[in-house]
Design brief:
single chain; about 290 residues; alpha/beta; Rossmann fold; seven-stranded mixed sheet; two-stranded antiparallel sheet; 12 helices; about 20% strand; methyltransferase
């Protein structure tokens, strides 16, 4: 795999100003990543992921989705170029006795560079499932490069293999949208490149078609964001990277304050935070 295959994936791969990346990765793994578990479960159930599955996870983050697939018996390969700190946590989760990127079984993790493992070693069977679980459709440009990445990854899969994309649902069904708008307000004038925008109905289909993939079904999944308290909610939301431009334009205390205030309508009597959301997934097929 060449570096260009993965390094074009997510816009937040660029250097991030004034953000503790290690702390953010831990917050993602410990707080935020589990919010998307209903999507992972729905996709794996629908596609009958199991011992016969060879999965290539693009933008695998700290590896929770891969861990869930591996627990079903799948052989998994994860690629994470944008967030090396998340990749390090994925290695701890999935490769406790790793050596040169290889652990027990068929689990592999890579940053996609030529210095890491070769995802298609001689004799390997092609992948029969590709996932790109990083949700798109809530900030301008968040799908930039994704079509090119999928187009490059598709030859690694067998013909007709499913490719799964995930996106935010309509804003009227995603209460978190009101909090994400804070990022746009604080990031001005940077918001032109990473501003919040409402998800569009055909966001996922457009990405798939540009990549030469054939849409073949979709679904919607309820993914409520639930947190123990407002502080945990702020840490979890900031770990997504969607507030980085806001932090760069102002400072972390200001962003913390604004996000905490925006969360108030969703704080329940016991202090927990509950924000119902709907996410959408698309299943496309390789040519």
């Amino acid at each position: 795999m060449t570096p260009t295959l993965v390094q074009r994936h997510l816009p937040h791969a660029a250097p991030v100003p004034r953000v503790d990346l290690c702390a953010r990765a831990r917050d993602w793994a410990e707080i935020q990543e589990r919010m998307l578990v209903p999507v992972y479960e729905a996709v794996y159930e629908r596609l009958e992921v199991g011992p016969g599955t060879r999965l290539l996870g693009l933008g695998c983050g700290s590896g929770l989705a891969l861990l869930m697939a591996a627990s079903r018996g799948a052989s998994v390969t994860g690629v994470e170029a944008a967030e090396p700190e998340r990749l390090a946590l994925a290695r701890q989760r999935l490769l406790p006795e790793a050596w040169e990127g290889r652990g027990h079984g068929d689990t592999r993790l890579t940053d996609g560079s030529e210095h890491d493992i070769d995802l298609m070693e001689s004799g390997d069977a092609p992948y029969n499932l590709i996932t790109a679980f990083q949700p798109i459709g809530c900030t301008a440009g968040d799908s930039e490069g994704l079509s090119a990445l999928l187009e490059s990854a598709a030859p690694m899969a067998r013909r007709g293999a499913p490719v799964v994309l995930v996106g935010w649902g309509p804003p009227e069904r995603c209460t978190t949208s009101s909090v994400l708008r804070v990022a746009t307000k604080l990031a001005d004038p940077l918001r032109s490149t990473r501003s919040w925008r409402p998800a569009q109905r055909d966001d996922l289909e457009e990405v798939a078609q540009r990549a030469g993939l054939r849409p073949d079904g979709s679904g919607r999944v309820a993914c409520p964001f639930g947190y123990a308290d407002a502080e945990s909610a702020v840490r979890g939301l900031l770990s997504t990277g969607l507030f980085d431009a806001a932090v760069g334009a102002t400072d972390l205390p200001q962003v913390d304050k604004e996000v905490t205030e925006a969360l108030q309508p969703y704080v329940r009597a016991d202090g927990t935070v509950w924000m119902p959301n709907v996410f959408r997934y698309l299943i496309a097929r390789t040519a």
